[in-house]
Design goal:
By secondary structure, the protein is α+β, with helices and mostly antiparallel strands. 16% of the residues lie in helices and 26% in strands. The chain is built from ten helices and 26 strands. It starts with 29 loop residues before the first strand and ends in a 6-residue tail after the last strand. It is globular, with a radius of gyration of 22 Å.
């Protein structure tokens, strides 16, 4: 059934710039603090944040099955969980009160002043309480590049990589929204030519260009979810920067994989863009060879054409675009990742987050990390101010943006932008 919210002819009575990430066809969900210090669940259109908690109190959702305080909470977890059961996601995503043909809110100045906030007047929060976070390793190009650096060109991919969506469990306590600074971590590294490690600040801080997806309640413990049903349990997507300390990672990752080099910080964009909004941008992913095992096999279009870019902004400088990539390059789809995640009966809950893994394309200007872009620091990137970067410097800001565009409709994610600060010093 067509989703009416996707209609490219829909307009809002609110002014929306032509190249805005948030037209009326988008309607993402987030959590913010108003200028009156009230925390609320909301959505965004253009440069306005819409207070859904206030709308609910003013009875704009009459007839939709919602608990009395659904939008007056500080996370989206309950809405994500209950909305799937009752179909409320779909009804809220088609907000007739923002449509240009509907005067109900447009012509009520008192209500409009309560509900409509300028985006610069709100403070964005983490949209969900993330109970568990899993990060995958699903870009063939990225895995091949890393394999070439760590082993050799002939054996760049591990034997299991083409058969299984590789992943590891991350640390949800270190996930922060856009705008929150990140401190350079301290840790153990093994200097070149040495046999004993040293402890100190990491000297190789990297970004990882990723997308994340947020789940609803997926299964009960012991139950596995078929790959053809997996998308039904994905609420929406965010931009994700999985900060990495490459020198710490190199020393610690054998034999059990990522640990302190990855769990010090993960940044996400604050607005969750729903799968319904992304539906017009569905496309096919790369051909999978060999064919996956039956429980991972799927046909059709199971990924999305999402344009991505990363910029590094030096302190007191201009942003430098260092890479442009696309989510459609991912070898393993979100459906396959979630089906595999639950194949052993692992429980997945409302508000859990899955990271795609670094998104790299086939060309050097589409690689998704500084590790690849500079090939381990051997080929520094020249910045507009004349300085060079092998990895991220203190006081640099990393900015990730993403959007889809088709038939004159642009659906975007905003940005995830975070500054890297020197190591934390206790007072």
């Amino acid at each position: 059934m067509p989703i009416t919210a996707n209609n490219p002819k829909r307009k809002s009575w609110l002014d929306v710039e032509k190249d805005s990430d948030f037209p009326i066809q988008n309607i993402p969900f987030g959590v913010f603090i108003t200028k009156d210090d009230v925390i609320t669940i909301g959505t965004r259109i253009g440069d306005y944040a819409i207070d859904l908690g206030a709308l609910q109190q003013l009875n704009y959702f009459e007839g939709i099955e919602l608990t009395d305080d659904m939008f007056m909470q500080d996370t989206l977890n309950d809405f994500i969980s209950d909305g799937k059961k009752h179909g409320d996601w779909f009804e809220i995503e088609s907000p007739i009160f923002l449509d240009s043909t509907n005067p109900e809110l447009r012509d009520n100045k008192e209500h409009r002043e309560i509900v409509v906030c300028k985006i610069e007047d709100v403070e964005m929060q983490l949209p969900v309480l993330i109970g568990d976070y899993t990060d995958f390793y699903s870009s063939k190009e990225h895995a091949t590049n890393v394999g070439k650096m760590l082993s050799d060109a002939e054996n760049a991919l591990m034997p299991n990589w083409l058969h299984i969506p590789i992943g590891y469990h991350g640390r949800s306590s270190s996930i922060v929204p856009s705008g929150i600074p990140v401190h350079r971590p301290m840790g153990q590294t093994l200097p070149n030519g040495e046999t004993s490690p040293v402890f100190g600040p990491s000297r190789s801080i990297d970004f990882e260009l990723e997308m994340g997806f947020i789940t609803t309640d997926v299964n009960i413990m012991g139950e596995n979810i078929p790959v053809h049903e997996a998308e039904d349990y994905i609420f929406g997507m965010v931009l994700l920067n999985d900060w990495s300390a490459r020198d710490m990672q190199k020393w610690e990752y054998i034999p059990l994989g990522p640990f302190l080099a990855k769990n010090f910080a993960t940044s996400i964009s604050p607005w969750i863009v729903t799968m319904d909004a992304l539906e017009p941008f569905r496309t096919k992913g790369p051909k999978q060879d060999p064919n996956p095992l039956p429980y991972l096999q799927q046909k059709g279009k199971h990924t999305f054409d999402i344009n991505l870019e990363v910029s590094i902004e030096p302190e007191n400088g201009e942003p430098n675009v260092v890479t442009k990539s696309n989510f459609k390059y991912m070898y393993w789809s979100m459906s396959q990742q979630l089906a595999h995640h639950t194949s052993n009966g692992c429980r997945v809950n409302s508000g859990d987050m899955m990271g795609s893994g670094t998104i790299s394309g086939a060309t050097p200007n589409s690689f998704g990390s500084m590790l690849e872009l500079t090939w381990g620091g051997k080929n520094p990137i020249k910045m507009n101010d004349g300085t060079e970067r092998k990895f991220i410097n203190d006081n640099d800001t990393v900015i990730i943006k993403g959007f889809c565009k088709k038939n004159d409709v642009r659906i975007g994610f905003g940005e995830v932008s975070n500054k890297l600060l020197p190591p934390f010093v206790r007072k």
